[in-house]
């Protein structure tokens, strides 16, 4: 056998061994639910990524209830999965179930949200800098309004979730040096379009038919899209009478921006599974311990960034 043939054979064996190793792997994924377009995209991309890497994915949709996530994790432990992906709906209440996974020697990777538990209870967390996202949104609005008085209404994410906590504090720091900007009403829309619309209707009613509102800051695009509908139904022009800034970068917010009905979004990548699986594969290969936080990038988009093209680029990516 020539050296070249030998090398080709070795390479082929190495690839097939990796594939066999991956095919032996079963991953439990405790997903929050399908509350937003972004969440749907994250689920789609996780399924695709697992399939491409030859993993068996056990998927659980918690319908945004922590007790369902905890039950799913316990079921994954009982099944003896090789790893668990967890997108934690809220930040607290995970210590005991994460301790059970640790005792079962099943690595847990957090996706897109953080937990208050000690970081020795999970392998790593993949996500964006949520505070930074809020700060970028606040700084954009401050720059946009200049010295004009601006009464802001805020649609918060799910109460007790790390994005709701961090995006609120980040936005407040982004406007802190601008006394002419003030958050006058703030309430959770639970990251959904329906509740975002409903809460915005109450803000409009409380604020002189919306005429006293200068801007909406929504912790995700889906609540902003719902609020845009409420603004239009009140006879006002979203994007003009009321500026709209939010976070995620889902296709429909780019469509709204192209229509002049939204002004800015901070993009959050839905591909958290790629870095998660890379970290798990390094850990399985030779015990490599990853950093405890693998940060994904955030990028501001405004109406100046060809939103129609950005819409086309994201349409059909599982949102
Ligand atoms: C943020 C993520 C949030 C998205 C929302 O990392 O947890 O959850 O911004 C989703 O669209 O509901």
From TrEMBL:
InterPro entries per record: Peripla_BP_I, SBP_2_dom, YtfQ_transport
Family annotation (SUPFAM superfamilies): Periplasmic binding protein-like I (SSF53822)
Alphabetical keyword list: Signal
One cellular component term from this protein's GO annotations in UniProt: cell envelope
GO MF terms, alphabetically ordered: carbohydrate binding
First-listed, main subcellular location of the protein, grouped into a coarse class: other
Localization per Swiss-Prot or TrEMBL: Cell envelope
Signal peptide bounds: 1-22
Record-annotated Periplasmic binding protein domain positions: 27-271
NCBIfam families linked: YtfQ_transport
Protein name: ABC transporter substrate-binding protein
């Amino acid at each position: 056998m020539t050296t070249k043939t030998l090398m080709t054979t070795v390479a082929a064996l190495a690839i097939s061994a990796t594939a066999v190793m991956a095919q032996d792997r079963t991953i439990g994924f405790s997903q929050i639910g399908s509350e937003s377009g972004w969440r749907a995209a994250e689920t789609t991309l996780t399924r695709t990524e697992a399939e491409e890497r030859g993993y068996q994915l056990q998927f659980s949709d918690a319908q945004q209830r922590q007790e369902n996530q905890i039950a799913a994790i316990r079921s994954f432990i009982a099944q003896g999965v090789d790893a668990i992906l967890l997108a934690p709906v809220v930040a607290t209440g995970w210590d005991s179930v994460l301790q059970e996974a640790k005792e079962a020697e099943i690595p847990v990777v957090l996706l897109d949200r953080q937990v208050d538990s000690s970081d020795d209870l999970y392998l790593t967390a993949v996500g964006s800098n949520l505070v930074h996202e809020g700060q970028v949104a606040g700084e954009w609005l401050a720059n946009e309004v200049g010295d004009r008085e601006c009464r802001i209404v805020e649609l918060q994410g799910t109460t007790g979730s790390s994005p709701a906590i961090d995006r609120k504090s980040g936005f407040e720091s982004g406007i802190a040096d601008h006394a002419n900007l003030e958050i006058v009403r703030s309430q959770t829309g639970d990251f959904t379009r329906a509740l975002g619309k409903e809460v915005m209707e109450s803000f409009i009613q409380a604020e002189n038919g919306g005429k006293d509102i200068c801007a909406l800051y929504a912790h995700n695009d889906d609540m902003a899209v719902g609020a845009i509908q409420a603004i239009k139904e009140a006879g006002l022009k979203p994007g003009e009478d009321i500026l709209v800034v939010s976070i995620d970068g889902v296709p429909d917010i780019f469509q709204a921006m192209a229509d002049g009905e939204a002004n800015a979004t901070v993009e959050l990548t839905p591909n958290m599974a790629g870095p998660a699986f890379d970290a798990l594969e390094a850990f399985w290969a030779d015990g490599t311990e990853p950093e405890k936080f693998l940060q994904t990038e955030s990028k501001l988009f405004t109406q100046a960034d060809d939103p129609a093209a950005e819409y086309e680029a994201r349409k059909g990516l599982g949102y």
